[in-house]
Amino acid sequence: MLPVWDRYSSFDLTSLSSDGSRIALLRQGRDETHGDVARDLLVNVVLDTRSGEAVDLPLDGRKLRQAYFQVDGSLVARVVDGDGFALVLISADGRKISETAEPAQFKNMQILAVTN
Predict the structure, then answer these.
(1) CB of 62 within 8 A of CB of 86?
(2) What percent of the chain has pLDDT over 90?
(3) Which one-letter DSSP state was computed for residue 38?
(4) In this predicted model, what pLDDT tens digit does every residue of 70-113 receive, in sequence order?
(5) Does residue 2 have a pLDDT over 60?
(6) CA 86/CA 95 separation, integer angstroms
(7) Highest taxon of the source (predicted)?
(8) E strand or H helix that includes residue 6
(9) Cα(42)–Cα(24) distance, rounded to whole angstroms?
């Protein structure tokens, strides 16, 4: 099996944890068509920067679409939830703190940033 850095590529780093230990990005397979490499805000994985491995997030099997780290190390994850999205707040140590359904009118929008 190829090392993780030989299996994937990414042009889209979206967020970096304050201690630098995790990054949120759109990761694609080496053989996938990348299209336009302009910055995108979509995310499909959070990686441990030391190992390069995916971080297991408490998303209940739902697809990750966006993710933003906060200064305290927590993570706001936007996940596909039925026909819309939900926002999940995850602690720095990986526990789900809270979850809320996103208003339907935001379905075709992207989160630009998360602030406290």
Answers:
(1) yes
(2) 61
(3) S
(4) 999 999 999 999 999 999 999 999 999 999 999 999 988 888 87
(5) no
(6) 16
(7) Bacteria
(8) helix 4-7
(9) 9
Contacts of 112 (CB under 8 A, 6+ apart): 41
- Lowest mean pLDDT of 12-21, 58-67, 97-106, name the range: 12-21
Residue 2: half-sphere exposure toward Cβ, Cα within 13 Å: 8
> In one letter, which amino acid is 74?
S
Q: Classify domain 4-106 by CATH number.
A: 2.120.10.30
Query: What is the pTM for the complete model shown?
Result: 0.83
Q: Which residues have C-beta within 8 Å of that of residue 114, sequence separation ≥ 6?
A: 68, 70, 76
Q: Which residues pair with 90 in a beta bridge?
A: 75, 96
Strand partners, 76: 68, 89
CA angle 88/47/56 to nearest 5° reads 50
Residue 19 neighbours by CB under 8 Å, 6+ apart: 73
**For residue 85, what are the β-bridge partners?**
80
State how far the Cα of 110 lies from the Cα of 66, in Å rounded to an integer. 8
